[in-house]
Amino acid sequence: MINQTAAGTPVEILLITGPAGIGKSTLCWEMGAMLAEAGIAHVAIESDELDRVFPKPGAAELAPLAPGARDVSQLNLAALWGTYRALGHSRLIMSGVMMHVEFDKRWILAAIPGARITVVRLRAGDDSLLERLDRREIGAGRDVQIERSLRQARRLSSEVVDDFIVVDTDGRMPSELAREVLGTIDWARSDA
Q1: Distance between CA atoms of residues 13 and 132, nearest Å
Q2: Which ranges in the chain belong to alpha helices (H)?
Q3: CB within 8 A of 113, min separation 6: which ones?
Q4: Residue 165 lies in a domain
């Protein structure tokens, strides 16, 4: 049975961004647990999983599926969201590095037209980021990933974020961060 209760409800997207290893996934899991405990319907999607394919299809391969589509992430998000929306959902927590937020907003809105996107940028000092990456990264690509994450952090710290919610994560627990973000966006109301 398809639930149409969300049909007229605007879609709210909480886009969690920041360099690799900063704690985006952990924050999403924590917020998801808090929302579930409060009985608030939501969906969580990690953008990395939307294009984890090899070889990655280009515009020519995607055109027969959706004319004008340039990224498989857009098509996969649209497909997933179509199901969740039909089930009555109107809130999406989405995480990803998102080095070019304006570009990323375009493909997200192409997948979910008319959605309202709130961007949350996580940041941390180099020492905190290195500590988190050191716990997470193993194997041959460890050093490359650490250097890439530090470059991402430097680039993102220089970006203008006037309309973002910026959350400093140094020395803070995921539950504290989740309460702060959820309090800022006020999804705790079950009528939204």
Answers
A1: 26
A2: 24-37, 59-62, 72-86, 101-111, 126-136, 142-157, 174-185
A3: none
A4: yes
Two tokens at 60?
């020519």
Q: Quick check: 104 and 25 in contact, CB under 8 A?
A: no
Check if the beta carbon of residue 22 is closer than 8 Å to that of residue 124. Answer: yes
- Is residue 188 in a domain? no
Domain range spanning residue 90? 12-183
pLDDT in tens, 53-77: 999 999 899 999 988 888 899 999 9
| Domain annotation covers residue 5 | no
pLDDT digits (tens, 9 = 90+) for 29-62: 999 999 999 999 999 999 999 999 999 999 899 9
DSSP conformation class of 64? T
Task: Answer whether 123's CB lies under 8 Å from 18's CB.
Answer: yes
Output the CA angle 99-105-108, nearest 5 degrees.
115
